[in-house]
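Posting this for the archive.
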Amino acid sequence: ICILGLLWLASQITTDIVNGTEFEDYSRGWARIGFFLTNMVCVWWLVDNRPRRVFWLAVGVFVSGLAASFLYLGLEFDAYTWKGGWMVPVTGFFVLTAGCFKNGFIGGVLLIMAAVVSAYMHGRALAGICFGSGLFLMVAHLYGKRRSVGLALSTKALICMLMLLFFLLFISIATRFAASGKLGEEARQKNSYQIERGNEFLGDMPMPMRWLLAPLFGGRIELMVSYQAVAESPLLGYGSWAKDPRFVELFAVYEGKSVEQLRAESSEGYVDRGLIPTHSHFFGSWVDAGLVGALFWGFIFLLVVESLFVLLVAPMEHKAIFVYFLMN
């Protein structure tokens, strides 16, 4: 991982030199990768393969999130304050409680409860993570009792497909529930728009698949823009804090809005700066640093999947915390 991480940093430096990236941008880009790799090594060194230390790491995240939310957001709970900070301590409470139970089924139920709370507060992405983690714990509780050895490749593939199917089902149902108006007018407008945009992207796709995928594609339009950027320059990235006004214009087309409308709605100034919209570590690193950045996060993804399969059959203290961190 460290070797790939250093190659990722080297690729980012090379990309910035070739593209003539400004100091303000490349200094932040290089520092971001450097701090991430340093934090990763420090966490690995401190945890030292001891589950109890992972538990206390989760406690630290929970306490710091609780303190920050209370100091900066007060006790007001709405969609804005939820995404702005309260989702960390509230979800952390469910995760820590689930991690205290040796019975994985109970832990899974608690995490699915956290998913319902997050979906109610319009936190769809976190809801999906909690739901996937809870479902995994239930499967591990039921399946792990019957297995004490590794899984065949075909079994792993089947489990991955089923987990993905249930995750997409949950996201689709949660989005369509919000679009029905049960969670307020603002949520109805936002989610109805995402479903409409998703249906336009998917075009003539058969109805069952379109029903399943439209909320995901409509809510993550940045992925479509990232794909176009990567397709144009798959090997060399666009530099730290990648900029190209063409892709802002493309994003506006996908959103069904004008660039001026995006500029008026943007609170982060990405339109004026021409920042290429991205949404994931994988595509974001590919756009910024080129193919090597994508290879780093692809390798991380494979490690996460393999670790989850180990947790599926292996008994472990505080398993719920490990599963949630890996899913996240």
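The two ends are 18 Å apart (CA to CA). The mean pLDDT is 84.
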